[in-house]
Amino acid sequence: ALSSKLPTSENRVSVFPGYPDCRIIVYNVSKSRNIGAVIRTAVAFGVSEIAIVGLRKISTLGNQHTIKYMRFIHYDKIDDCVREFKADGYKIVGIEIGEDAKDVTTHPFYEKTAIVLGNEGSGLNDKMLSLCD
Question: Which of 76, 79, 38, 41 lies closest to 60, judged by CA?
Answer without folding.
Answer: 38
